[in-house]
Amino acid sequence: MSTPEPPSHTDRAPHTDPPASSTADAPIRIVSVSDSESYLKWATQLLSSLPGVEAHVYLIDSPILPTPEQITHAIAGTAWAGRSIPVVTRTDLAQIMTDHHADIVLGAATGPIVAQLFLTAHLLEQRPALVSGLPGMGLPASCKGMNYRRLMDAFITHSFAEVAQYTEVSALTQVPCEIYLARLPMLRSVGIPQRAGIPQPAVTGGAPEPLTQVGVPQTLVFAPQAKVPATLDDREAIVRSLAEFASRHEGSSTIIKMRSRPGEHETHHEQHSYFDILESLRDQGIPGADRIGLGYGPLDEFLVPGAALVTVSSTAALEAFDRGISTLLISDFGFDRHLLNEAFADSGATGTLAEVAAGTIGFPTSAWLAQNYFHSDDGRMHHHLALLAARARAGQLPNRRSAVWRQKRLLIRAELRTIAPAPVIRAYRKLRYSR
Q: I need a labelling partner for 45 at 20 to 30 A (CA). Which of 290, 369, 380, 413 fits?
């Protein structure tokens, strides 16, 4: 299958960006750079939620550059919907920041790209403030990720647990940055979300029955992830449970909501594709496998009344909670840092693959929701960014010359690892660790 050509765009004219919100004060000028579909989605949703911002969004040309279809899905429902997102190279970054007189640069990208972006910003005569974050659940906090963002002034987190972990990692790695708390921009509920009922079929000649809090979902949606679970056997077990659900509940539909089409790239590489696993089970004649569909497009289109979501640890679970959709976090593989799902362990929304097959899907407790990602949005993020912008304009941001040199060395090592032969890398590591 051929892969669509990536968009090519070098125009940096203002018409590519949504107009700034009206405000009595000068707008906060933000330049955002992303390298993948998930980061682009987060950046455009975050910036669309902020008043008084003049934002310019770019994609950087990289191996994980999203296709035009992925871009369309990522920016759906934001101020950038229907617009062209310029694709630029690393050599364009300094000029872009200068052209837009950026007060803040948002590094909405993977670690190595953010490191290069922030290093470029630090080399400007008067640098902008540097802010980064992750496009979904940020747990567990990573020292490696923090080191790539060493030059930042602030890091955006999305829960009280994330604030605590990233404050600890910031101290451990000696990365002196402020830790901000925001709400994930795709979460739209006011207060603590409540579980919606499942519509019951209409009685012949009468009106539909009222919503109920229990019942087999009309549509069961599985949200996969590239990294977890890692093994083929675990992934196949998930699809087998979906097939069993489809076989046992012929009145319901079953969908694997794919993040990308074959040949498209995501933020993380997927070793065992659910597309291939499903094809294999169909070839084996597994009952129900032929009734599983593959879904593409914005997740919102799948989180509808009567649907239920199943996942291992995807941020899609938070979006489902937000809309009151019954959700199950698969417990068969455990809950730990490697599965990126520790936060869900005591959510009240966990369940087994046997429960997936039965269509017994739960919902988290209100207490868990209040402490995890569904805190009230008090608008403080705009206040934080306004202060950062004011400090940037006044030239009051810290000079991190020593950190700049450390970041350069990190990037040089990273570049060398991509071009040096494996035997050279092994010899270098052996020599280094023997000292």
A: 369
In tens, the pLDDT along 147-176 reads: 999 999 999 999 999 999 999 999 999 999
Helix (H, G, I), strand (E, B) or coil at 64: coil
State the pTM of this model: 0.81
Average pLDDT over residues 375-399: 93
Cα separations (Å) of 2 from 5, 72, 261, 264, 334? Answer: 9, 19, 11, 10, 38
- Hunting for tokens 């280094």 — which residue is that? 432
- Quote the distance between the C-alpha of residue 186 and its chain's center: 10
Alpha-carbon distance of 316 to 345, in angstroms, equals 16
Burial of 236 (0-12, 13-18, 19+ CB in 10 A): middle
Nearest one of 298, 225, 295 to 267, comparing CA atoms = 225
Beta pairing class for 292-295 and 307-311: unpaired
Q: Is 160 exposed, middle or buried (0-12, 13-18, 19+ CB in 10 A)?
A: middle
Please answer whether residues 115 and 407 qualify as being in contact, where contact means their C-beta atoms are separated by less than 8 angstroms: yes
User: Is the separation of the CB atoms in 71 and 7 below 8 Å?
Assistant: yes
Alpha carbon distance 72, 65 (integer Å): 13
| The pair of three-digit structure tokens given for residue 11, joined into one six-digit string | 């125009």
Cα distance between residue 293 and residue 267, in whole Å? 24
Counting DSSP H helices and E strands in the chain, the numbers are 14, 13
Cα–chain center distance at 8: 24
Distance CA 193, CA 262 (A): 35
Count other Cβ atoms within 10 Å, centred on residue 83.
Answer: 16
